[in-house]
Amino acid sequence: KVPISKLINQGESQTLEFKETLEYDTQNKAQNKAKNKDILLSSLKTIAGFLNAAGGTLLIGVDDSGKTKGIEQDLTMMKHDNNDRFEQKIRNCLRDRFKPQPIGKVNVSFGKLSGGTICRVDIQAHEDIIRLDDKVYLREGNTTLRLEGQTLTGWTEKRRR
Questions:
Q1: How confident is the model at residue 95 (pLDDT cuts 50, 70, 90)?
Q2: What DSSP designation does 28 have?
Q3: 3-state secondary structure at position 66
Q4: Which pLDDT does position 31 carry in this prediction?
Q5: Phi-psi sector, 97: left (phi>0), alpha (psi -120 to 50), beta
Q6: Radius of gyration over alpha carbons of the chain, in Å?
Q7: I need a labelling partner for 11 at 20 to 30 A (CA). Which of 24, 57, 67, 144 fits?
Q8: How many C-beta atoms lie closer than 10 Å to residue 88's C-beta?
Q9: For the CA atoms of 131, 143, 8, 15, what is the dihedral angle to 10 degrees?
Q10: CA-CA distance, 68 to 7, in Å (whole number)?
Q11: From CA 14, how far away is CA 57, in angstroms rounded?
């Protein structure tokens, strides 16, 4: 298992994605709108994309440039601000929003760096097609795409062969 600091130095790729926060909106904090469901959705799309591709690692608490930000801002919005609650938040989303549930395919761990605590989500490829909120996402290069229409049909047919 590659240390978090080495992963950060590698930069984002087909199998590595950085997210600054899980759901804390760093842009709207002054307007008291710290929680942003679109930011949470972005992390969930990445997890779904990795499940439908070759797997990968999501680091939460690292911005796109590779700067360590930590998950402490996210923790301040939770009833009990600890890593256990943070993992529970992710696991509840996996249970409630992913079909089929990716049981045994997602591992959550935490590491402490100088910039703060980083949440490491290691995802294994799933044999089934995973849907997030009834939509299919796929990791392609260093981006996560939503598949729909003919693209989804073609990809599904190839995958089933």
A1: very high
A2: S
A3: coil
A4: 56
A5: alpha
A6: 16
A7: 24
A8: 14
A9: 60
A10: 12
A11: 10
Q: What pLDDT does 1 receive?
A: 83
**Each residue's pLDDT tens digit, 54-73:** 999 999 999 999 999 999 99
Show contacts of 74-83: CB within 8 Å, 24+ apart.
Answer: 74/21, 74/22, 74/23, 74/24, 75/117, 76/24, 76/34, 77/23, 77/24, 77/34, 77/35, 83/110, 83/117, 83/119
Q: Provide CB contacts within 8 A for 141, sequence distance 6+.
A: 13, 14
DSSP state of 3: -
Burial group, residue 134, by CB count within 10 angstroms (0-12, 13-18, 19+):
exposed
CA distances from 111 to 92, 106, 121 (A): 21, 16, 11
Residue 28 clears pLDDT 90, i.e. is over it: no
Rounded Cα–Cα distance for residues 139 and 74 (Å): 25
pTM of the complete model: 0.95
> Element (H or E) spanning 40, and its range?
helix 37-52
How many Å apart are CA 58 and CA 75, to the nearest integer?
Answer: 18
